[in-house]
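Look over this record before class:
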Amino acid sequence: MARYIMLLNWTEQGIKNVKDSPKRLDAAKAIAKKLKGEIKKFYMTTGTHDMVMLLEVPDDEAAAKFALSIGSGGNVRTTTLKAFPEKHYRTIIGSLS
């Protein structure tokens, strides 16, 4: 499974309806499951981003579908970062000439 760190911010619509946010998170979890993945971690945060999640899905295509699906509701904007676990990090760095 590929891992992605997603940084999320509420839109104006999303913050106006913030009380519905837990229901939207449940819906996002269902979307991830449909894509054969899972939201492994979720945090509401302070600072530049309103929320952070760790998403595991099979591939980049599934990650793109997930981001488009949750973004299309108009409640959040996403920034997606592909995450390499430490093992892969060490392999990549070790292969450098």
In short: The CA atoms of residues 49 and 93 lie 29 Å apart. The chain has a mean pLDDT of 97. The first strand starts at residue 2 and ends at 10. The beta strands are 2-10, 38-44, 51-57, 76-83.
